[in-house]
Design brief:
CATH superfamily: Lipoprotein localisation LolA/LolB/LppX
Shape: globular
CATH architecture: Clam
CATH class: Mainly Beta
Number of strands: 13
Largest sheet: 13 strands, antiparallel
Helix content: 10-25%
Length: 265
């Protein structure tokens, strides 16, 4: 073997190694994106939904307060979902209503109606990391999941409560996000989100969301009966219990506008 040929083989081999390494890195990102797209695709076509929800706020000493909420959601073609949440109990929050227009890209539009003030308050994008009605959910957490709002990376697969899960890192693309990243567990069988860890702007673990007791509706769409958000830093938590899911209620855009907030009953 000549020195020239040997040198060529060494250079070629080095290039192949570098290309393989680059392909591996890209594959983790591509796989993460593909998994997110599949999860999104499997939950399309439900049109609209209504449900009842109990919200339990729990402070670090275990003291609780309970709120009853009605919600309705509209699936929007080529954009994010529209949702309206109305508080029925207790009396001090009765009539409070929250309207959210999620978007596939860019800032979401959100408004909160406070009956005591008799006015509608717009939630500014820079305030989206603030708490929603004293809960451990931020306004940002209440938006529908949209693909373009994150960058993705598949970091591993591991055993989880219902089989095997993909574990993805999701990095928000919005500079006003309250998070540097989310780590999400998605089951391989049905692509349901089971757990999400939220990391704050200092890249410290802030909250963990667990989504449990899934049921399938209309033979296609999975919805949880129980969602729990635990704040590891404040030691507070919020539990959401859902019931009376109904799909195909004939809702339209006219059921989701700022004027409906003041009329919410």
């Amino acid at each position: 073997m000549t020195i020239k040929l040997l040198t060529t083989l060494i250079i070629t081999g080095s290039v192949l190694v570098l290309n393989a390494s680059a392909a591996f890195a890209a594959t983790a990102e591509d796989q993460g994106l593909a998994i997110a797209k599949e999860a999104k695709a499997r939950d399309e076509g439900w049109v609209d939904m209504t449900a009842s929800m109990n919200m339990v706020l729990r402070n670090k000493n275990g003291q609780e307060s309970v709120r009853e909420i009605r919600m309705q959601v509209l699936e929007v073609a080529n954009d994010g979902d529209k949702s309206l949440s109305i508080f029925d109990r207790p009396r001090d929050v009765k009539g409070t209503a929250f309207l959210s227009f999620s978007h596939t890209s860019g800032a979401d539009d959100q408004w909160l109606y406070l009956p005591a003030l008799k006015r509608v308050k717009r939630i500014a994008s820079r305030n989206k990391s603030g708490p929603f009605m004293g809960s451990e959910f931020s306004f940002e957490d209440l938006s529908s999941f949209e693909i373009d709002k994150y960058n993705y990376k598949l970091i591993k697969e591991e055993a989880c409560s219902i089989g095997t899960c993909f574990v993805l890192e999701q990095y928000p693309t919005d500079k006003n996000s309250g998070y540097t990243k989310r780590i999400v567990w998605i089951d391989k069988a049905e692509y349901r989100t089971l757990k999400t860890d939220f990391y704050d702007r200092k890249n410290s673990l802030l909250k963990t969301l667990t989504t449990e007791q899934y049921q399938q509706y209309k033979g296609t769409f999975w919805r949880p009966s129980s969602i729990k958000m635990v704040n590891h830093q404040s030691k507070k938590s919020t539990d959401l219990s859902y019931n009376q899911y109904q799909f195909g209620n004939g809702l339209s855009d006219s059921d989701f506008n700022k004027n409906t907030l003041k009329r919410a009953r």
